[in-house]
Amino acid sequence: MNMNKPVEPIQTMLQTYPNFKGSKVIDLLYAHPDTPIPAADMELALNLQIPPDFINRNRYRFAPIRMTDEQTLRCVDKRLNRLIELKAFNATTAYDDEIQALIRYRKETTLPTGKIKCFNDDDSKAYDRLRKDIDTLLKQAEKDGYSEAVAIVKRCLHRGLNFFWDSRCSET
Predict the structure, then answer these.
(1) Domain ranges of the chain
(2) Which value, to the nearest 10 degrees, does the dihedral of the CA atoms of residues 5, 11, 14, 16 take?
(3) Which of 35, 66, 94, 122 is 20 to 30 Å from 1 by CA-CA measure?
């Protein structure tokens, strides 16, 4: 599958740990240098053993699903302000439970900036799994003395919802 042969330390590390999913991720990225690959596409490519560009062309992506909407937040804010006024006027604890529930709802559905959060999508979950797979490989490789290969991977591998291998950094 890999047309480009990884630099020697990486090749040795990948051969030492062929069953680690992190090795398969690095090998796939090295085979497609400078090509951003969405985490979910990479997982499918590895599991189905088909090229990531095929998956990228044929995969339908859903829009992120928001946890709430602006109208609901306005209603929550209006109710929260009203309850705080009533509590201040009456000096009673009768409204505390509802106030706390509304505050909790606000925190769960919005970011600190006030922007509405979205439910985790496939790419976020796939990113978390692949990150753990790569970290497991690198931790084991470092422990077993492959520090040069680990350093190259850390320098060349760009992680995120889109992974890619920077070919310029592995040429040295």
Answers:
(1) 8-63+121-170, 70-109
(2) 140
(3) 122
